């Protein structure tokens, strides 16, 4: 018992010292913990964690005293901890990450000293090793909630490690770090079955039963997804998981341990069975820069842009991949923490608006809601201006301004060049930004008299990761008019959306299968069949006019559809992201062909969890079933979105590819009313006064819709009229 108390002394004193700043007590705790470790009696899995606690105590000592020797000792303790950690034991991802973080810290403190470059390179390699170990933790998840927390923590680490790689001059490794973290999020969401069920499905019944017994004897999901270093760094936060509210033993046991508390041999054997058997979703093959270059060449895209918000000043950069040439990094002040004030203001305005709208039970103050909407609209305008300060320098860096402006007809060029095509991977909270509405100031030498929106001069496609771009690019597009399906589900609050479906059926898709609440209602199973996961002849186009709701995880992000026969309205009519991710796609996640899915409902390209595109309805559709998907970033006004949708389908009917068709529709909305080209589906539309509105300065009416999927243009048909 004395040894056990001594071994916990270092983390206990460290937590106390955070508040009391007492280096002497920390040093005493380290001495006692080290002396206890020299004696026998501790398990092979506990010793490395104890060394991790000692290392964090030493790092805290370094912070209080500035003594570099304490930091060196902390690194040595973590290095030894990793050598002692049994293969397959829990906690490896966290310990490896802590060692990476401390070596990056030492490199930053010794910028010009010998060994600094070695430290930074080692930090990058350790970070990538930590991300691989996080993939094992996701593989052994006890449910989608737990797996997502692990994956999101890994994605945040990948972003931090990307900046270490940039400082080390390893730009391709920076992309590798981002891809490793972001790919885990979709992988974690794709598996809702427990480990025991997956083991049993693979014929390992004895192993599955041992796992169930271990889970039954566990206290539940007591693990923490943060490493010990991350836990102590957050010790001052007023959160329920505040480390100061835990015992030292709980603190040592928490990081990365998860649930249940498994015998080491059981965990190792389970990993051996599940590795390579979980499919591409669970253990993704990461995209290399060579793969990305090939994808850009195949689709005709000019560049793949990773928009990476900084984690510490002066971090913040755009990583640029082109079909040829080296990967480059473009540091931008606007992406640094202090430069993203417009993003924070927009998120705050959106949260305020959502809060008031969610509480609207007929007793709220309409004026207060209107003021909230106006504040959100002003924040949106500011955000679009900020986004232009990010994308403008990228166009200059790529040398694309000349072609972009000429293709848009803004320079009077005699020959119209091909459109500029950009694939955007927004990381972190940059996933909330409507990049297609970015306000760009053309260079003065071109004589363009006004600012332009990004969608006026380029075709933009979004991707959750480079790997997801490649997945969509490999799929063959179906012709939308071959087997179209139109789905409407709603009440009086979606009257314009109902007219939208009726008009599409009458004008563009006379042979379409149409689903309405009172006629062939669309249940979740119906829509899954249309999407092709459970049908021999899937639809080529699925247009969904229904409510969508973004939630914090795939069990709460839903499309509201009709309940199955005989069931009352409620959860039975909800199609969740989990259901989409679990739907088979011709037995292969890399499906050979996919439909176009258009989601005209609310919040179908947004998540309320962290505003990252890695897990939204449209990203999941492209990940699993679709070649292209179009969804919305915010709650859209269906009175005006109906017009945009009808123009979109008109452009599709003229042969434009989905990303070009969305761009054409948004440019149509930007065009002054008296200069807009005619659109067949708009003839005879009700409330025709809507067609006289000038919406150029109303991005809230048109900029919410984004394209995810294949960025390629339509191959066999000249795309006339694209300047609509």
TrEMBL record:
InterPro entries: CHAT_dom (IPR024983). Residues 701-724 are annotated as: Disordered. It comes from Streptomyces tricolor. This is CHAT domain-containing protein. Residues 415-710 form the CHAT domain. The lineage of its organism: Bacteria, Bacillati, Actinomycetota, Actinomycetes, Kitasatosporales. It holds the Pfam family CHAT.
């Amino acid at each position: 018992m004395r040894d056990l108390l001594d071994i916990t002394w270092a983390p206990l004193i460290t937590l106390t010292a955070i508040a009391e700043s007492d280096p002497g007590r920390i040093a005493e705790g380290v001495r006692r913990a080290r002396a206890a470790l020299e004696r026998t009696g501790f398990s092979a899995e506990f010793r490395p964690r104890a060394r991790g606690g000692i290392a964090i105590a030493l790092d805290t000592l370094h912070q209080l005293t500035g003594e570099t020797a304490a930091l060196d000792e902390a690194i040595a303790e973590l290095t030894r901890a990793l050598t002692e950690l049994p293969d397959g034991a829990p906690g490896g991802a966290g310990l490896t990450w802590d060692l990476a973080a401390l070596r990056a810290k030492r490199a930053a403190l010794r910028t010009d000293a010998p060994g600094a470059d070695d430290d930074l390179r080692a930090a990058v390699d350790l970070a990538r090793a930590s991300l691989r170990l996080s993939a094992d933790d996701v593989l052994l998840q006890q449910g989608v909630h737990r797996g997502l927390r692990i994956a999101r923590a890994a994605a945040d680490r990948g972003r931090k490690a990307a900046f270490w790689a940039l400082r080390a001059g390893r730009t391709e490794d920076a992309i590798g770090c981002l891809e490793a973290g972001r790919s885990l999020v979709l992988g974690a969401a794709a598996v809702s079955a427990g480990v025991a069920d997956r083991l049993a499905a693979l014929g390992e019944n004895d192993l599955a039963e041992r796992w169930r017994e271990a889970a039954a004897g566990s206290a539940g999901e007591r693990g923490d997804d943060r490493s010990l270093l991350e836990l102590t760094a957050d010790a001052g936060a007023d959160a329920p998981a505040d480390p100061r509210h835990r015992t030292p033993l709980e603190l040592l046991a928490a990081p990365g341990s998860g649930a249940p508390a498994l015998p080491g041999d059981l965990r190792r054997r389970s990993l051996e069975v599940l590795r390579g058997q979980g499919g591409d979703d669970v253990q993704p093959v990461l995209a290399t820069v060579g793969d990305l270059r090939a994808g850009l060449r195949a689709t005709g895209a000019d560049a793949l842009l990773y928009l990476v918000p900084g984690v510490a000043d002066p971090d913040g950069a755009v990583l640029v991949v082109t079909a040829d040439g080296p990967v480059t990094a473009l540091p931008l002040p606007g992406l640094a923490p202090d430069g993203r004030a417009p993003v924070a203001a927009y998120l705050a305005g959106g949260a305020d608006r959502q809060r008031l709208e969610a509480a609207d039970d007929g007793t709220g103050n309409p004026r207060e809601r209107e003021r909230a909407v106006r504040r959100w609209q002003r924040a949106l305008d500011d955000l679009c201006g900020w986004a232009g300060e990010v994308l403008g320098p990228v166009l200059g860096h790529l040398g694309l301004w000349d072609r972009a402006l000429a293709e848009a007809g803004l320079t009077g060029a005699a020959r119209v060049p091909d459109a500029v095509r950009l694939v955007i991977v927004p990381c972190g909270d940059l996933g909330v930004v409507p990049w297609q509405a970015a306000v760009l100031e053309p260079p003065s030498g071109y004589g363009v008299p006004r600012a332009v929106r990004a969608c006026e001069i380029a075709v933009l496609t979004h991707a959750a990761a480079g790997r997801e771009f490649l997945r969509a690019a490999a799929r063959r597009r179906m012709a939308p008019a071959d087997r179209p399906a139109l789905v409407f589900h709603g009440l009086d609050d979606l009257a314009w959306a109902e007219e939208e479906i009726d008009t599409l059926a009458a004008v563009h898709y006379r042979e379409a299968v149409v689903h309405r609440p009172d006629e062939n209602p669309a249940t979740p199973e119906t829509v899954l069949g249309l999407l092709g996961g459970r049908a021999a002849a899937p639809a080529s186009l699925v247009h969904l006019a229904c409510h969508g709701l973004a939630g914090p995880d795939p069990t709460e992000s839903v499309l509201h559809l009709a309940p199955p026969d005989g069931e009352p309205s409620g959860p039975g009519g909800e199609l969740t992201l989990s259901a989409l991710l679990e739907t088979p796609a011709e037995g292969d996640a890399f499906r050979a062909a996919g439909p176009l899915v258009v989601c005209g409902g609310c919040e179908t390209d947004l998540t309320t969890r962290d505003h990252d595109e890695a897990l939204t309805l449209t990203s999941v559709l492209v990940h699993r079933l679709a070649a292209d998907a179009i969804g919305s970033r915010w709650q859209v006004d269906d009175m005006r979105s109906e017009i945009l949708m009808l123009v979109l389908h008109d452009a599709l009917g003229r042969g434009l590819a989905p990303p070009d068709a969305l761009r054409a529709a948004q440019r149509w909305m930007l065009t002054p009313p008296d200069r807009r080209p005619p659109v067949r589906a708009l003839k005879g539309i009700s409330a025709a006064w809507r067609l006289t509105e000038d919406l150029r300065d109303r991005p809230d009416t048109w900029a919410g819709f984004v394209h995810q999927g294949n960025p390629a243009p339509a191959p066999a048909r000249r795309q006339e009229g694209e300047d609509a």
